[in-house]
Amino acid sequence: MRLKAHPVRSLSGRARPPGDKSISHRSLIMGALAHGETTVRGLLEGADVLNTAAAMRAYGASVEALGDGCWRVVGRGGLKEPIAPIDFGNSGTGARLTMGAAARFPILSIFTGDGSLSGRPMARVLDPLRTMGAQSFARAGGRLPVALQGKAGLAPLAHAPQIASAQIKSAILLAGLGAEGRSEILEPKRTRDHTERMLKAFGASIAESECPSGGWRVSVEGPASLYPAPVTVPADPSSAAFPAVAAAILAGSEVRLEGVCLNPLRAGLYATLRDMGAALTVLAQTDSAGETIGDLLIRGGGLRAVSPPAARASDMIDEFPILAVACAFAEGTSVLTGAEELRVKESDRIALMVNGLRACGVEIEERPDGMIIEGKGAGGVKGGAVIETHGDHRIAMSFLVLGLAAQNPVIVEDADMIATSFPGFSAFMAGLGADIRVDA
Question: In the structure, what pLDDT confidence band is assigned to residue 344 with cuts at 50, 70 and 90?
Answer without folding.
Answer: low
